[in-house]
Amino acid sequence: MTDIVTDRAGLLLQDVVIRHGDRVLVALTQHVAPGEVLTVMGPSGAGKSTLLGFIGGFLDPVFDAEGRVIVDGDDITDAAPETRHAGLLFQDPLLFPHMSVAGNLMFALPADIRGHMARMALVDEALRGVELEGLGARDTETLSGGQKARVALARVLLSRPRMLLLDEPFSKLDQALRGQMRELVFAKARESRLPVLLVTHDPADAQAAGGTTITLEP
Ligand SMILES: Nc1ncnc2c1ncn2[C@@H]1O[C@H](COP(=O)(O)OP(=O)(O)OP(=O)(O)O)[C@@H](O)[C@H]1O
Predict the structure, then answer these.
(1) Predicted structure pTM score
(2) Which domains does the chain have, with CATH numbers?
(3) What's the rounded mean pLDDT across residues 135-164?
(4) Locate the ABC transporter domain: which residues (predicted)?
(5) Closest atom, ligand 1, to C-alpha of 50
(6) Which of 44, 199, 202 to mutate for ligand 1's pocket (most ligand atoms within 8 Å of CB)?
(7) 212 CB-side CA count, 13 A
(8) ∠ CA 104-177-197, rounded to 5°
(9) Which residue from 48, 126, 147, 182 has the least number of CB within 10 angstroms?
């Protein structure tokens, strides 16, 4: 066991080992401070998405996992996925099609925020936060790739996450958009003091993230 203080803020992965049969895919202990990024790199099949699945609570049962996932001192290792409050972003923005931007964002708002006006105000604020002010009424199908990525980010932030788990979220964007989007995501994480785990194949993402980078072995 690694001797680590578990009550500090941020995301702590303590003595995590993930196996598939006899193969050890992941073996690590890492702490990600609020607002900081841990970048996970490594070749295809190394286990990057598997690690995200373990943290988010959606690890396929073909894997054996041990170790603890601790967020702001709370041990969530055995918690149901929906109670972990992980904000997930993937390559694909996964927006609900043929629904307005505001409709997509409304879905993410916690149920304890009541009243249409209060909910709309939060949606509008979230849209301003990702520089999409005034686009609430648009059908998501009519948005550009970069705009869809911003809506996906706004939706995740509205869900009041305790951490961000990002699986190659910039890889479908072209070079210029990719740079803008990663700056926006990292800025929002710092602003909201969210620890971030970023899976990527792009060393430029790791460099822009500025935190620790680990490389999983094939
Ligand atoms: N449901 C599953 N059943 C069996 N093997 C699986 C399953 N999911 C993943 N694997 C295997 O586990 C290993 C790790 O997969 P994982 O998706 O975590 O890799 P990755 O590093 O994210 O790869 P990529 O960069 O291609 O996304 C791979 O060998 C993969 O084939």
Answers:
(1) 0.94
(2) 1-85+162-218 (3.40.50.300), 92-160 (no CATH)
(3) 96
(4) 6-216
(5) 18
(6) 44
(7) 11
(8) 70
(9) 147
